[in-house]
Amino acid sequence: MSSDKGWQDFPEGAVPGWRASATDHLIEIRNGQLRYGKVPPDSGKQYAELNANEPSSLYQDVRTIPGSVMRWKIAHRGRQGVDVMRVRIGAPTGELVAQVPEKAKSPDLADGKTAWGHYEGFYTVPEGQTVTRFAAASVSTFGNDPRRGNLVDSLSFVTGPVVSVTKTVAGAQDQRGVAVGDELTYTVKAVWPAPVLSSCRSSCTSRWAEPTSGSAPGSARVRRPTPSGLRSRA
User: Of 157, 149, 29, which Cα lies nearest the Cα of 85?
Assistant: First the structure.
């Protein structure tokens, strides 16, 4: 980053994991360690501005597990006055839905220039949606200036583990079912994803882990049950 200006527009390919909806596909990153603009970051050393050269959305696509519940968080601040943005989530090929934060009645995140506002909420991944787009979208800026406004930081999307368990049993292949003396081989397999974590903090990076699986094979021989209450003689 250019240390003399304190801010710089980067091609979206230079900011890992993130994309911009702007026609120039530029992402503006600001160095919060400098006194330029006198705006300290909410966390880390840097933050982004949604209105770099035009109203824009900063977004990323992450792999998700259908049915899992995602928790999102974001810090938002106006630059010259009250700016408004929304968090929009959905399938990359469909319409993104504006999210209403917890304890709020509107999806509009409106904040002035004196402090960071903090918001969070939950999103349930629909059936069949294995990739989900999370977007921080500009709605309006103070004075309707398209090139200035909507500072964002501490943006994160997290999901807890979702465990899927399957079992298979081999043995007694004919139609007579299971009989005394048969040996059955069983395998129990559990698949659980590591938590998905994407963040825009000091370096605006994105990371997630591949699903992890484990299996436990074993076998058992079918025995004739002993009638309850009976004891064998010595």
Answer: 149
Q: How much is the pTM?
A: 0.68
Nearest to 220 by CA among 187, 183, 177: 183
What is the phi/psi pair of residue 219, to 5°?
A: -150, 160
Q: Looking at residue 50, what DSSP letter applies?
A: S
Residue ranges and CATH numbers for the domains of the chain are 7-161 (2.60.120.260)
Spacing of C-alpha 94 from chain mean position: 17
Helical (H) or strand (E) element with 27: strand 26-31
Residue-wise pLDDT tens digits, 207-230 = 334 445 555 556 555 555 555 444
**pLDDT by residue (tens digit) across 102-161?**
999 999 999 999 999 999 999 999 999 999 999 999 999 999 999 999 999 999 988 755
For residues 208 and 153, give the distance between their C-alpha atoms in angstroms, rounded to a whole number. 19
